[in-house]
Amino acid sequence: MMLRVFIQTYQKNTASLSSSIRYVSTGIRNSSNQDVSEPKDVVYPDVRLPPRVLQLGVPDESPFVRVKKVMKLDYDRFCANLQGKPPPRFPAQSDILVIGGGIVGSSIAYHLSDKTGPGLNVTVIERNLPKKKSVGGIVDLYQQVLSQPNFEMTQYAAEFYRSLGLPQDDPDLPSLPDINFNVNSSLLISSNNDAGAIQDLSDMYRNLKWNHQISTPAILQQRFPWLNCDGINVGCLGLHKEGFFDEVSALSTIRAKAEKNGTTFLQGNVIGFDFVDISCFATNSMIRTLTPRKAVVQTPNEDVLRCTFGYIIIAAGVKINEVVNLLNIDEHIEELPILPQKLTSFEVECTSGPGLEMPLIMDSSGLRVRRNGLLGTYTVWNEKDLIDYESYEEPKVDDNYFTEKLYPQLIHRIPSFKDCKVLSSKARIVDTNLWDNHLLVGPTPRYNNVLIAGGFCNNDYLFAPAVGRGIAELCLENGFDEIDLSCFRLERI
Questions:
Q1: Could you read off the pLDDT of 448-468 as tens digits, one per residue?
Q2: Which of 14, 22, 253, 275 fits 290 for a cystine, CB–CB 3.0-4.6 Å?
Q3: Superfamily of the domain at 52-133+249-337+437-492
Q4: Chain-centre distance of CA 444, in angstroms?
Q5: Fold of 176-242+339-433
Q6: Cβ 208 vs Cβ 241: under 8 Å
Q7: Residue 132, CA distances (Å) to 38, 135, 248, 383 in order
């Protein structure tokens, strides 16, 4: 009897202790042992710290503050150990700090770590970690762009993503998802007003030895009988290095390879910068010269930490000006001409739509139509229908937009979509460079150790590989090597 009571009491105390351990390690009452590994979006308080100027060689923290940080880190490591997770790590120093963990920031981190290996300390700060979805949206890979630097970047993107989809034999890498790369072509069609531009592009493609075909409306009608050629003057059909793939799988693979090379991805929000007075090193010591040296980061737990860096690369997408404004210590820095804009796309179903021979339709009006696999679904959007979006809330789809504007354009170009049915819709915010609709890549005129990568609009996956490699070359070799991206520098604005 006594033995049975002792065993029951022991089991009860063990269960209570187990529940307490779950509570300490996860921060919630997790009595069902549910999976808490899926990252949650964090709503950060609107906090902006004023810039602080540090003196070289003078400690900026008291010994008590440093001891408090060490004790807090030990506690976090203890909780992570109870939960069976890797210990948290916030580096006090980083050779290169990347702000933004999307495809652009991840590509920069990957190319930096790929060139140097673990010897270079690269840290990526991102507001919210990407969701662990099995399948995401579809990204188009096409070559029909309007300038030679853009074309060279898309050529590298084709090589990069095709190799990314190959089986990985590295035992140090985790099991990586298939990016589901599908070969496809693109058809750029223009009206009478744009015929000369298409011919100029064809000359550029020919000089760069890219396989394409210029077609008259009669040839297009014969090859694609479902296409309405009214108003078309000429078409350019791409035949090489084009297709589409899954964006979430591609991003996961790039991040995994960067982490394998030593890159650290951390969740947090940059709320300020500390500057160092380097006037003593300036040519004219009478002029006060400041340079940013520490980033102030607020973690999801609302802790405020500082990270010293050599270079900082701002690839924060639509939030890029929020970070740039934190560097404005003496009102000498203007905002970049990058504006958040909303782009809406629709997935439609059409049983009588074009089949496997359908390329990515790129109409001069901005209309884009892509076939999604083999099930008779298509994605429709218009690259030129961008709406300024300054709100911090998630963008919402205007249901009338498809019926009133996009649907008439769609059935005019492809009449078989007359009976299509909308399955889903998606609104995303893109960063548009209002100056000339091209990228902004390179160091800021004021601070040589601050680099910018922005203005991608809806082409972030298309240009991210080349921009990532170019930024890595700037940091490590002090200049562009493989592709000359100097035409995208900030000095032009």
A1: 899 999 999 999 999 999 999
A2: 275
A3: FAD/NAD(P)-binding domain (3.50.50.60)
A4: 20
A5: D-Amino Acid Oxidase; Chain A, domain 2 (3.30.9)
A6: no
A7: 7, 9, 8, 28
